Amino acid sequence: SNSTPKEQINQKAMIKNASLSEEMQQDSVECATQTLEKYNIEKNLAAHIKKEFNREYNLAWYCIVGRNFGVNVMHETKQFIYFYLGQVTILRFKSG
What we know:
Blueprint: E1 13-18, H1 22-38, H2 42-57, E2 61-66, E3 80-85, E4 88-94
Antiparallel strand pairs: 1-3, 2-4, 3-4
Helix pairs in contact: 1-2
C-alpha cells in the first residue's frame, strides 16, 4: 500500500544520516511532519516536501519518500538528510 495511516505521523523522527545544519535538519523534520498531516500518498509527500524546501532554500533539492529503498546518490557537501518518520523513510538532498 502507498498510503500512510494518520496515527503514524505523531511518531518522533529518527535521523539516520545528515550533513545539514541543525536548523535545516529541524526544518526538514517539521516540513515532513506537516506534509504527512496533509497527504498520504508517497509521491505527493515527496513532491510537496521538495517544493517547500526549494522555496525556502533555493532550487536543486530532491526528495524521495518510501518504505524500503537503497540509497546511493551524489550530493553537495552539507546538503543531505536521511530520516525515518513513523513507517516512512525520507531522503532529501541537494545536487547540482
